[in-house]
Each structure stands twice: as structure tokens, then as C-alpha cells.
Amino acid sequence: MRVIVLGADGYLGWPTSLHLSARGYEVVAVDNLVRRRWDTLCGTSSLVPISTMERRVARWAAETGRTIQWVRLDLRNRADLTELITRHRPDAVVHFAEQRSAPYSMIGAEQAVETQVNNVVGTLNLLFALRESAPECHLVKLGTMGEYGTPNIDIEEGFIEIEHNGRRDRLPYPKQPGSFYHLSKVHDSHNIMFTCKTWGLRSTDLNQGVVYGCNTPETQRHPELRTRFDYDDIWGTVLNRYCVQAAIGRPLTVYGRGGQTRGFIDIRDTVRCIELTIANPPQPGEYRVFNQFTEQFSVGELAERVREARRAHGLETEIVHLPNPRAEAESHYYNAKHQKLIDLGLQPHFLAQTLIEDVIQTVERYRHRVRVETIEPRVDWRKGALVSLRSRRAGDRSRRARSTLGR
Amino acid sequence: MRVIVLGADGYLGWPTSLHLSARGYEVVAVDNLVRRRWDTLCGTSSLVPISTMERRVARWAAETGRTIQWVRLDLRNRADLTELITRHRPDAVVHFAEQRSAPYSMIGAEQAVETQVNNVVGTLNLLFALRESAPECHLVKLGTMGEYGTPNIDIEEGFIEIEHNGRRDRLPYPKQPGSFYHLSKVHDSHNIMFTCKTWGLRSTDLNQGVVYGCNTPETQRHPELRTRFDYDDIWGTVLNRYCVQAAIGRPLTVYGRGGQTRGFIDIRDTVRCIELTIANPPQPGEYRVFNQFTEQFSVGELAERVREARRAHGLETEIVHLPNPRAEAESHYYNAKHQKLIDLGLQPHFLAQTLIEDVIQTVERYRHRVRVETIEPRVDWRKGALVSLRSRRAGDRSRRARSTLGR
User: Fold this and answer.
1) Which one is catalytic: B11, B181, B242, B255?
2) What is the span of the domain harbouring residue B379?
3) Residue B104 catalytic?
4) Model-level pTM?
């Protein structure tokens, strides 16, 4: 089976490429490498050093004898993308190739527009390319649990049966996304749903929770196979950030009251979910949604978990509450369904103290690479970028960044 | 009170500008004139001759002594738009400035992307400009009833109270738009709702039905004040198209079975709805939705109405059914609420035989301008453009159009 992974240079795209290749899928890994440029722009950097895509695929071949084909391509270039789809006629396309940071999308007008254009146009180009050259192909699209927001009723998987004034219908679940990034995923979902219905494409929209962890069995095989690990205010996810704060002896910073509850998933489960989704495609014309997470936590609870893991080693960790830079409810009802991937065979890795310890150990190995000044929030949901996002280390170029990124 | 009308060169933007100016509003009329370029591209043309914006505002001043300020500007240019908002600090902005044809958006990838980028980026730029320079300003945004699709339950005005597993919430009404154009309006709605909640902007989203009619009292004052009248497959709305077909002695073409039911509104009520909305602004931070239509009809019923109006004059009109170029249900439940504008004082012009006769009389005056070849559908929802959209009259340039518009 031939699979194209779009966004294969990212935190999850790369481990997914390896996971699928290890299981015998013929993998074409595609990326425009913009994520590395965004790091330069934001003064951020992966804690774990990562190799070039060329070295990664060469190392993977040397280690396993398996070939991953690497293609540098930007989805906004419709002609190139159509040519790629036509050439490979994949059985499935896994689409990670989006700007995926909520804080980045909230820096200012330029980044909001960039996020929505990049994500919406890339996905539209992909949908047209599939209609033209691979209408049977299964589009596995990464969405986000953040599409739903925090409604006061249970969150279903994509659709909800509504009874209203004595009549019933099964309708798309109402969306209340909380950033221009999350909004872009809602736009994508509507566009994809429409093309499934109208053109008969088939797609699974994976509304993923917040991912944590830094390794999969494949990325651990060699240093050159590692995936990126982000802990900063722009690209880092909350548990990964806490682990970095704990490892460098800083307080864990909880935004606001900490009652914000979300779905979470271990990176090892992400790659397995993608595999299960590909192995169980929808019918032609079907658009389905899986909620891809395994457990719910509040961000305050997660901080406690990290503190407990440290305490088991006799280490004390402070937890502090920062003014919340995001506009979001800090205590709310949250009960999101996540049954469909379990039904397909997912056996979750639940969050354990050992995982937290593993992550902290990894961090400790690279603690000299931590850029402390990138951890505290620099983007406010109401005002945009609060300060220049450029790290001071970047020197002269920071002035240019201030004029383009600052407000 | 100062009002900026964006998209003031269009079918509704121009009569709205006149209606508001006549009632003492200080009006700034803004457009990038792309609608006239799209006509050239599609081989289409307004049946009623229209003047340049310069002549229109000069004529309006001569007729009434009132000034409408005309500004040529593209909303995709964020710097220009921000400067405009900063200079005028309007009390309200009426936003018609979008690509508004569903068939145009379905021609092919280029037009789908153009539609979504134009509409989404223009609106994002406007939201950022308002945050920066006029956060109290009331954004009156034109949406469409087509955002809702045709659910099997009653359509509410923007939000619906849902009871689910013993809990309740008032949530955004689920959207099932039926073209890349309608999708772009759903994207806008989500973006606007978010900025009201997060930045405290205030907005009314007017989900308008299908508009018919060609005159308002203001446009009738002088030939140079007329607004455009479209009857073709790309830009024409269904009742206007039927009137043209009747006037030139052609059969009325109903798409598919004709059971497609939609909300409709007279152009004279559109301008009044905008006025009522401006006069009754929402609270800061409030995002509200009005369904802006006055009656529901199926497209088959509308054809019958036109036939009856002709029969009253002893004229027989044929009705034929064409294969439906759109992907849509041809018989379905439809009951959409439209109470909020009535509550604000709208007294609807219901569809009457006299209105149909008036429109047909107007058409007869310009029947020499009808381009018959642009009436039958040239865009299929499943396949895109079926033929070159360029009128044969355009001569040599049609070859270029074929290569850019055809599939």
C-alpha cells in the first residue's frame, strides 16, 4: 500500500512516516520545511537536535533496508501537488502539512492570514488533486479537538443527533474554535465534508488532542531518526513544556486557574491511530470524524502529575499560575467521546509516571539547549504579540523580526 | 452616523449605499471593481446598463445634494483597508465585498481558491483593522441562508438550543454549505464570531436569502443610478433569470425536480434590513445572526408564479426541467426562522404578480442586451466548468479563457 505523508518533517509527521514504513507501507514523505523557518522567525528551536530529511531517510534505509522517498514540496503550489498525486496515485494521503500553532496564529494579522491561507489553500489544492488523479484515495486529515471548543454538553465524534421541535437529524457537531489556527481546521473540515458529499471523495478527519512524549520505537533506533521536541510558548504542548520546566528546576507555569480540560494522547498512540485509520478506510463518499485522544486532564492536574513524578525522586517542584494569555473558559464542563479508534483496536498508552520520567530524562540530556526566554507566553489572545518573538541570541536580525512580528 | 459600504459597486451594495445616503447617513462607498472584471472573464453582462462609480456618485449629488464618497480599494490590501478605517472611524461597516457566486466558485480549483482567499482574507483584514482603529464599530456582514444547507429540522437564526444526554447548551447552528462560495461564508462566520468573543468586536451576520427585483426608489430616480441586473448561469439569481426567460419567450429552466426550497427577499427589503440592522446595533462583544429573507418558495413554485403572471396577459410560458448541475437535495424539509428583522420593524414586500410584471417590463426594455448563450448552466458541481465560460462575442480572447477556466 502506498501512502503519502504530507508534513513529514514535523513532530508527528516524521514518526508517522517511520511507523508506517516499518510496517511495510510504501511511504512518500513530503514537506516544504517551513517549520524550520518558523523556528528562526520565532527564536525557537527543537530541544532534541534533528537531522535533515536527507539524512533521516538515508539513516532509516541503513538501519532497516526500507526506503522512504523524500520530496520537498509546498501544498500551496497546486501544479506540483497535482503532479505528485498523479505520479504516485496513493492509496492514502496523511495530511499533517499545516501551520499548527495557536499562539503563532494569534501574533497578528500577518500570521492569522498566513495560517488560514496556508491551511485552507493547501487542503483545497489537495482535494482538487485527489478529484483529478486519485478519487479513490483515502484522505487522512489531522484536525484538532480544539475545533469543538468547550460546549456545556458531551462532545461527540464529528456529528450529533439533534431533536428539535419534534423532528430529528444527524448534523455536523457545532464548532467553537478558540484561535485563528483552530478556526483554520474548522474551515478545512467543512471543505472536506463538502467534497466527500459532492465528489465522492473519502476522508477521515482525526480531531486530535494535545500530544505529549518525545519517542516512538522507530525514532529511538538512532539519533538521526529523532523527531523534534518543542517546549516553548509558540510550538510546545503543555505537558512537554512542564517536563522541561521541571528538568531545569523552574516552576511549572499554569495559565490562569488551570481548570482548562482537554483530551491528551501519547505520541506512540498518534502513530498507531494513523495506522489503524489507514487500515480501515471509509466508503467512497464517506466523511467520518474520529476523536483522537485517550484521556482527559485539566492543565492544572497535569502540573500536579509532573510534580508527583518529581517528588518520587525527592525533588520539589513549584507550580505557579500566570495570567492566562488565551481567551478561554478556565473551569467548564468537558466530556468528549473517543470510542471509534478504540473500536478499531487502539490500546492506549495511558499517562504514567514512567513516561513523565522518560521525557524529563530526555530533557536533562539536552538541558544546555533550553532557551529559557522562549518559555513564558509572548502572545496574548486579545492583543497579539506582546514582545519581539525573536530570541536575543539571534542578534541583529531581531530588529527586523520586531517590525514584522510585533504589533 | 458614518457608514462604510464595502462592495458598493455590486447588485446590492449600490442600492444600499443610496438607501442609507437618502436617510441621512454619511456614506463611504468602497469597491475594487472586480465584479466588472469577472463579467469580462465569464462573458456575462448586466442586463441593465450601469454607470461608473464616478458618474453614479456625481449623479446622486446632482439629484439629491447628498454626498457619497467613492473609494477604490481591495480588502486584500490590509494596509489600505486599515488606513481607510482609521481615517473614517465609521459607526458601522456594511460588508458586501465578497465573491458571491456559487457557480463561479465551482468552475475549478483556481476559482475555488480565489473565492475562499478573497472572502476569508478580506474579512480577516477587516476584523484586524476594526480591532486596531474602530473596536466599537458595528460590522454588518452579509452571509447567506446557504450556510445552513437543508437540514431535516427547523433552521434557527444562527444558534440552536441543544439538549443532549441530559445537559443543555446554546450552540452555533450546524452548517452544511453547498458550494465553495457558501463554504467561504461559513468560514467568515466562524472567524467573526471568534473575534467578537475574544476582542469584544460587535457584529451582525445577515444570512440572506435569494434576492430578486431590479429597482429601489433611489435607483429609479435616474438611469445613471441603476444597479446591475444579472440573469445568467453564473451571477443571476433564479427568479430574475426566469423573468428574463419569460420576457424573451424562452422556456423557464428548472434545475432537476424543482423541489429545492429556499428563502427569498425583494431587493427593496434588503436595503431596509441593512438600515434596520445599523439602527439597532448589538452590544460590544455580541455576535448575532439574522436570517434575512421574507418568504420560502421552491424553485418549481417560483416558475409557476412567473407562468401565472404571464398567463394573466394571455401569454403562455413553457417550463422545462434540466439535469441539475448542482449537488443538492431536490425534495426536502425546509422551515427557516426569520423573525428578528420583523421584530426590528421590517414590513416585507411579499412576492406579488405586479413585481414579476415590473421585472419583466424592465427586461423587455433591454431585451436586445440579453446574451442567450449565458443562461443555460455551464458549471457542474461534480465536474466544474463544462464549457468555456467566455461568450463567443468576446472573440479571440475566448481561447485564453478556455485554457484558464476550462478543466
Assistant:
1) B181
2) 2-405
3) no
4) 0.96
**A176 and B CB contact within 8 Å:** yes
Provide the chain A residues 92-131 that lie in CB contact (below 8 A) with chain B.
108-109, 112-113, 116-117, 120-121, 124-125, 128
What mean pLDDT comes out for the span A377-391?
86
Q: Decide if A151 and B171 are in contact by the 8 Å CB cutoff.
A: yes
Number of domain units in chain A: 1
Q: Is the pLDDT of residue B392 over 60?
A: no
Interface contact A151-B169, CB threshold 8 A: yes
Per residue, the 3-state secondary structure of chain B, as one string, reads: CEEEEECCCCCCHHHHHHHHHHCCCEEEEEECCHHHHHHHHHCCCCCCCCCCHHHHHHHHHHHHCCCEEEEECCCCCHHHHHHHHHHHCCCEEEECCCCCCHHHHCCCHHHHHHHHHHHHHHHHHHHHHHHHHCCCCEEEEEEEHHHCCCCCCCECCCEEEEEECCEEEEEECCCCCCCHHHHHHHHHHHHHHHHHHHHCCEEEEEEECEEECCCCCCHHHCHHHCCCCCCCCCCCCHHHHHHHHHHCCCCEEEECCCCCEEEEEEHHHHHHHHHHHHHCCCCCCCEEEEEECCEEEEHHHHHHHHHHHHHCCCCCCCEEEECCCCCCCCCCCCCECCCHHHHCCCCCCCCCHHHHHHHHHHHHHCHHHCCHHHCCCCEECCCEECCCCCCHHHCCHHHHHHHHHCC
Whether the pLDDT of residue B395 is over 50: the answer is no
CATH number for position A319: 3.40.50.720
Is A334 among the catalytic positions? Answer: no
What pLDDT is attached to residue A177?
98
